[in-house]
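User: Hi! I have a protein structure encoded as tokens and I'd like to know what sequence might fold into it. I'm fairly new to this, so please keep things simple.
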């Protein structure tokens, strides 16, 4: 296996793992938690919260 093919394989594995973890997070309902934390951080940066 050449170096280029190894890099492509590693990239595909990482992309697959990333997509899988996003799907698991959505399935567990973590979207709301992350959005809530993001809003709080943004409000603190602006000095509102």
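Assistant: Happy to help. Inverse folding works backwards from shape to sequence: for each of the 49 positions I chose a residue that suits the local structure. Here it is:
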């Amino acid at each position: 296996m050449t170096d280029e093919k190894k890099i492509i394989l590693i990239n595909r594995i990482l992309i697959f793992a990333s997509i899988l973890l996003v799907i698991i997070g959505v399935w567990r309902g973590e979207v709301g938690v992350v959005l809530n934390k993001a809003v709080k951080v943004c409000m603190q940066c602006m000095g509102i919260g």
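A useful reference point when you look it over: The first helix runs from residue 3 to 28. Feel free to ask if any position seems puzzling.
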